[in-house]
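REVIEWER CHECKLIST
Item 1: Sequence provided? yes
Item 2: Single chain? yes
Item 3: Sequence as submitted:
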Amino acid sequence: MSIRVDLVPTPPYPHPVLLVDVLYGSAAGLLLSCGAKEVWIAKSVRAARILADKTGLLLGEEEGLPPEGFYNGISLEALQKLPVRGRSCVLLSRSLAASLEQHPLGSALAYFRNARAAVLYALEKQINTVIAASHSRLEGESPSSWVAGGRSSPVQSAPAPLEPSLANTVAAGFIAKRLLQVVDRQGDVQEGARLAMALLRSFPDPQESLVQSELGKQLYRSGRSEDLALASLVSVENLVPRLVEVRVLEARKYGLSKDRYGFCFRAE
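Item 4: Structure as written out by the authors:
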C-alpha cells in the first residue's frame, strides 16, 4: 500500500479517501453515535435551511453563534445531549463542505475519536489517501472579539480563503502512522505522509496540537475547553461517517447566488 497524505485538499479524487476533520468530523460522528439517521454538511446558511427542509435539525455557527432558526451551535459537549435519534441533522461548515467537493461516494470522515475504526475502514475499502481538511476563519478576527459562550460585538466580515489546518494535519499524520503500522510498515510512504508524520512527532499528546492550532485557540477563547478535550480523545468511537449522497442545490431553482452542494453521511 502506498500511503498518501494531502496537507490540503487537491481534488478531484477518482477513488474514496479519508478526509480528516478534528472538530466537524467529531461533531458528525457524535450525532451519528447518538442515533441520528444521517448528517448533512452544508456550506452556507441558506443551503443548510434547504437541506433541512421542515424536519431536519439545523446545527452550526456564524460569528460564534447559531444563526436564526438553528437549534444549536457546534459544541461537542452540547451535541451529546441533543434529541437526535432517528432524525436528519444538517451541520453548517464552510470549510468541511469546501474540502468535500469532488470527493467520490464511499469517502469517509476520520478524526482522533474514530482513528481505529477509520483505519480498519480504509483497509477494508483499500483506501490509501488521507486528506487534511482545510480550515477557515473570519478575516479580521481578533481574540478580543471572543467571550465565554459566544462573541461580543461581532463584526461582519467576508470569509477568509481556506488555509491548511495544524490540527487536521497532525490528525492526518496520526491516521497515516496507524495505517502504516497495520500494514507492518510495508507501505510506500509518500512525501505528504512523511511531512504529516514528522509534524505529529512534535506533538506526542494530540490535545497539545489542538491547543496550539487556530481552531484550539478559537475554542479556548470562547470558553469551550471541554470541546478540546472531547475532540482529542483517541479511538473512543467505533463508527465511521461515510459519504453516501451528494445533493446539488441548483442556484436557479432555490434562489442561490450559485450552485451549492449537500453532503450526506451515514454511519458505517
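Item 5: Key structural point noted by reviewer: The chain has a mean pLDDT of 86.
Item 6: Recommendation: ____
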